[in-house]
Amino acid sequence: MNVGVLGTGITKFGERWDQGLRELLLDAQLRALKDSKLSPEDIDALYTGNMGGGPLSGQLHIGAMATENLNIDKPSVRVEGACASGSLALRAGIHAIEAGEAEIVLVSGVEKMTDVSTEQVTTMLMGAGDEELDGFNGLTFPGLYALLAKAYMTKYPKLTRDILANVSVKNHFHGAKNSYAQFRKEITIDTVKNSTMVADPLTLFDCSPITDGAASIILASEKKAKELGAKVSIIGSGLGTDSLSLARRKSLTRIDAAYAAARQAYKQANIKAEDVNFAEVHDCFTIAEILAVEALGFAKEGEGYKLYQNKDTYFDGKMPINTSGGLKACGHPVGATGVKQAIEATLQLSDKAEGRQVKDAEIGVTHNVGGSGGTACVHVFKRMK
Amino acid sequence: MIFMFRDSSIIRWRNYKDRYMLVGFECSACGKKYFEKKGLCPCGSTEFNEIEFSGVGKIVSYTKIHSGPEVFNEQTPYCVAIIDLAEGARIEAQVVDCKYEDLKIGLEVEAVFRKFYKSGSKGVIHYGTKFVPKF
User: Fold this and answer.
1) On the CB side of A96, how many CA atoms lie within 13 Å of its CA?
2) CATH no. for residue A332?
3) pLDDT, tens digit, for every residue of B15-26?
4) Is some CB atom of chain B closer than 8 A to the CB atom of A274?
5) pTM of the entire predicted model
């Protein structure tokens, strides 16, 4: 697989009271077109990731909205896979190019979350779990990851409360260096430990926030990408799935779908975990980042804590993770997150990650999870020679 | 939009047996047990027999939720656990009538019939099964 990245566009993430779903999407789309020096007529197809448009904004049919925004009539589809919607849209865009149906594709992700109450967002997000098995019993997403954290930390006690907090501290450190991040403030281990309990053992600062935002990326066939001077290409895409409910999983200490996605993506890209220079991973909760680095093969199961004992995962460390600030500090507009990860990988591989640039990176990976692991999507990005 | 289902009593009526009496299913070929309806067993069978679980089980993991969905506002905070039933199936349920500090992985619990919540514009009351520690 070899699909080029022509350009990227991203809105400021955060509480965007001034903008609705449509405006956020348009903002990201126009930025990506400008960055790619393309006009709307150059786009052959559009894929847009979104999870909550229906319940949160009363707005479905976002495929047509994406083209209406740009005054074009090209094929356009909304893609949904809970918090992995953005990566699934990216994958759909890649496939349209690989199938020869399109040469240039506009992939976006958008989520407008702050128009409703936290309880309503919590209910919407639980749509990613199993309504009958999880939702009915009052489980929430922090609750599901708390169950994973409790099971994991009981089996692998070397992952202590302080080391888990380090995930959040590091992501805030990176977020402070990222101009489009929701939270641009450094924190300490005590900030995490002393914040409000959300679902034991996870506190507020273990949890990614509720965020408005949109992100767009323009992909091109290998031929077109060379012609237009693309600097980054996508060389692998993997997608794994599993049960919606945790009660049906084989294990409570790993996310099997992510192992499957990584295996497929690495195989397609013909790389090994050791070849990866940095990764953007799905840290919807601190425990999720530990599970992610293990699924991606940067640590064995139960040994993810080792990467967080010191500063290995900082942008200048030996295995930088979430230089964007991750979901925790950059924010988590769920449908946009997968595309944002792809943008961060592109910025890193084209030496545009100001203030948080990973040195001499050749290969970066993105890891995006839907629900508590019902869907997991991994992509491999490479600097073009 | 997806909240519309909360107004529906039909959606819960379909599940009366498992919600009220902890009725589950056993694969008639391999004997694997499920709490929820399952159409296709990993063994390949599509034949299942109904079974009634004893309601006794052990906690596999647990948490205390301090910020819950709207319908649970009156009960928040509350404890939820993943429980392995004695007969073999794994379920999720609230654990009540106890202190969170008393819960631990491996603790024996047993099922009790409880009110869950009132919801929707018609105030439909939903009931189901919660668990209490077995002392």
Assistant:
1) 24
2) 3.40.47.10
3) 888 889 999 999
4) no
5) 0.97
